[in-house]
Every structure is written in structure tokens, then in C-alpha cells.
Specification:
The chain is α/β, with parallel strands linked by helices. It has 3 domains: 10-137, Rossmann fold; 152-390, pyruvate-formate lyase- activating enzyme; 395-457, OB fold (Dihydrolipoamide Acetyltransferase, E2P) (Beta Barrel), CATH 2.40.50. It is built from 14 helices and 21 strands. It has helices spanning 20-33, 61-81, 93-105, 121-130, 145-148, 177-180, 189-201, 229-237, 257-265, 282-287, 294-307, 326-339, 366-390, 454-457; strands spanning 10-16, 38-40, 49-54, 87-92, 111-113, 135-137, 159-163, 165-166, 185-186, 206-210, 219-220, 226-227, 244-248, 272-274, 312-319, 343-348, 395-403, 409-413, 419-423, 432-440, 445-449. It has a 6-stranded parallel β-sheet, with helices on both faces. Helix 8 runs parallel beside helix 9 (257-265) and helix 12 (326-339) runs parallel beside helix 13 (366-390). The longest helix is centred in the last third of the chain and has 25 residues, at 366-390. The protein is globular, with a radius of gyration of 23 Å. It binds iron/sulfur cluster. Residues 168, 170-172, 175, 177-178, 212-213, 251 line the site of iron/sulfur cluster. It catalyses: N(6)-dimethylallyladenosine(37) in tRNA + (sulfur carrier)-SH + AH2 + 2 S-adenosyl-L-methionine = 2-methylsulfanyl-N(6)-dimethylallyladenosine(37) in tRNA + (sulfur carrier)-H + 5'-deoxyadenosine + L-methionine + A + S-adenosyl-L-homocysteine + 2 H(+). Monomer. Residues 154-386 form the Radical SAM core domain.
Length: 467
Amino acid sequence: MTTTSTPPRKRLFIRTWGCQMNVYDSGRMADVLAPIGYAPAETPDGADMVILNTCHIREKATEKLFSELGRLREAKATKRAAGGEMVLAVAGCVAQAEGAEITARAPWVDIVLGPQTYHKLPEMVARASRAAGAVIECDFPAEDKFDHLPDAAAPPGVTAFLTVQEGCDKFCSFCVVPYTRGAEFSRPVAGVLAEARRLVSAGAREISLLGQNVNAYHGEGPDGRSWGLGRLLRALAEIPGLRRLRYTTSHPRDVDDDLIAAHRELPQLMPFLHLPVQSGSDRVLAAMNRGHTADDFLRIADRLREARPDLAFSSDFIAGHPGETTAEFEQTMVLVRRVGFAQAYSFKYSARPGTPAAGAPHQVPEAEKDARLQALQALLRDQQDAFNRSRVGMTFPVLFTGPGRHAGQVAGRTPWLQPLHLSGQLGLVGTEASVTVLAAHPNSLSGLLAAGRDADNVQPAEEPAPA
Ligand code: SF4
């Protein structure tokens, strides 16, 4: 009798900073490394490979990366002393923007790769084992990396992300994305639909479409024509078992009539939209190169709300862009009061090397930026609290995603992406059920299955579509 033994799995640890697109990319890097024996690990201790998937948007991204690399240098030495090897890779936007600096300051890094080259990872791992210095891949190749990545393998859970678009041509004054992720690129419709079907058959009930400029989507359809995001959403909404759709991040300039119509027509399209505006001042918006005015944004918000009256907005704001006066900042506060946001991300302006605004004159003093940000965040927090409180007493469907933080709780998401928990009922995970909200907490809601209708309110997920 012969016996076979499986080679030991190599441990892969990926640390992810930044946006949901980076989370998605980390999953795909794990997928591409699985066939050569790497299995995900929870910690970097003793790992055979560590990938730092970086984000350039937040402040001090580079400093954070180098302090992490300092810690990993020791971990790598410990592993080597024990007779093993740790492959260390830096991926993501900081790798793309600052590859040369990384290899100069941290020569113990084995691989530096930009976001368009993840499909080449297995080959790079092989090259790294032979190379004397770091292996670097930071091109923007013309080929479609999605054609070269394997089908997503990891079970997605009840909610899943799906990247449909990457890159940006808009060159906002403050943003590094056009430099780190390259020009806008949309995946063909067939590939998106196939991946969505696979996700649903693996248990996903909600899919969030991702793209740096997701509503600039213009993928090639099966009819050979360019499809916009509205048309793509309609096709996705036909997948049996897929109950909820979302998309992020959008640009006001790319909200077209068809997308607004999709919000009116598709019950699967959730009534919550992240639509960054950045400022309420037309002069600042022009200086930011945003390509829209405050009024344009208000008109779009009104039209979307007319199409879907329960739609709530989230947005991004920058306080203290170079040259912003107190009066111009006040115009941002006016816009916030006029729209009323359910949630928002706000930051004080901080220079990103290589972007036009970084070298602009009239930088706003730090203390002034701090004061403006505090005022803005207080207003946005009040609006978020008011929105959460406005849900108390309402009954609506909640998609249950897993156990809650406390024993005996089940957690879910409202249509407006608020976390909601209720006691017991773990059998609800993976289903949508009507919940009456009892209380609003600082970051979540709690409720009860809609009174007297527990059994028939639970809507089991439909049969998933074949992959
Ligand atoms: S549209 Fe968004 S991704 Fe593109 S440059 Fe502006 S902020 Fe950056």
C-alpha cells in the first residue's frame, strides 16, 4: 500500500490598510497564492510570507509602513535563525508611489508590487527566492489583470465586495489615486456577472460593487457595447438569491439619468449612497479640480431622493484645502445642513507628495484646520445621531450577517448600512427579516423581530444561482 502525504502549507499573513478595494485586493492576493501552497494565517508570527497592503490616502501612511517594516525585519531574522525564510512583500498604493524609497530604506523587503500586478505574485515569489535584491513590479500593464487572476476562492460570507472598476482620470488636486492606480479601467460585464454568480452560490446575499470611480463604470457588455453602471446593476439584480446591491465610491460628475432610474426601479439597490462632495464652496471645488459646483451636487441629491425617497447620503469632506477662507468653509456647513447626511468621513487637508495641492500657496494653518474640522464633525455627528434616532419605531428588513459581539446576539445590517443587533435567533444568519427598531446607540441600532410575525417574516434566501 502506498501512502501520500500533503506538503505542509505555508503560512501567509496579509496586513491590509485603507479602503474596501484594498480588502478585496488582499483576498485576491490570497487566492493567487493558494495554488502554490500558501494558506492564510491570523498573525505574522512565524509566517512564511507577509504582505503589507498599503494605502496612501491617510496621513503618515509611509511612516506607518516603515515602522511595521522595522518590526518585520526582526521577525524575518528570527525565522531565518530557526532555519526558515519569510518572504516580505509591500503592495498597494504606497508601493506604487514610493517603490524606490522602500527598497532603499528597507533592503530586507523582497517584493514591491503595485495594484495592477497582483496576478504576477507567484512568479515574483519564485524570482525573489533567486534574486539578490528586491523584485519590483509597479507598471500599469495594458493587459487586464482580472483576466489573469483566478476565480475568487474564499467563501465570501453573507456580504461580499466585487471590484468592477479601477483607477481614475479626474486628478483632484489633493488625491494620489490617479498616480497610484492609473487610468480608469472597467471590467467587462461578463466577468462581473460570473463573479457575482459565484459569490451568490457561495452564500453572498449582498454585493457591494467597488471602484475608485465606480459610477464611471463603462465595461464592455455581451452586446459589444459599453454598459454604464445603471445597466450593470439591472443585470446583477436578476441573479436569483442576490437580495441587496450597493456601490462605492461615486463621483457626482458621473451620476447619469440611467443610474438615477436604477435607484427608482431596483428594490435590490439599497437606499444608501456614499457620494463625496468635499466642499460646499464653488471656488474651493474648482481649486480641487472637482468638475462640479455645490449646486450641481444639491441638484443630483434632490433627483436621487425624488427617485428613491428613503435614500440617505454619506459623503467625504476636506476642511482647510489650501486657500480655503472662513467664509468658504461656512459654505460647506451650509451644504451639510441643506442635505442632511446619515454618515460622513471628514478630514483636515493634509498634503500628499506629488499632488498639485501639496505645493499650492496659502496653506491653511494647522490650528485653523483643526477648528474647522471640529465644527464640521460636530455637525455631522449630530446629523448621524438624528438619522439613527429617526429609525426607532420603524420596521424594515435587516440582512443578518453573523453573531453579534455579545453572547446570544445576532448582528445584521439595515438598508442604510447601520449595524443592528437583536437577541437570540442565530438561525437568521444569511436571511433577511423584518425588524422593529427599539433603540439607537452611538454606532448601532437594536431591535426585535417584527411583533407577532417572527416566523413568516423570516425570508429564507432563494436558491442560489449555479456558478
Ligand atoms: S475622483 Fe476620487 S479617486 Fe479620482 S482623483 Fe478625485 S478624489 Fe481621487
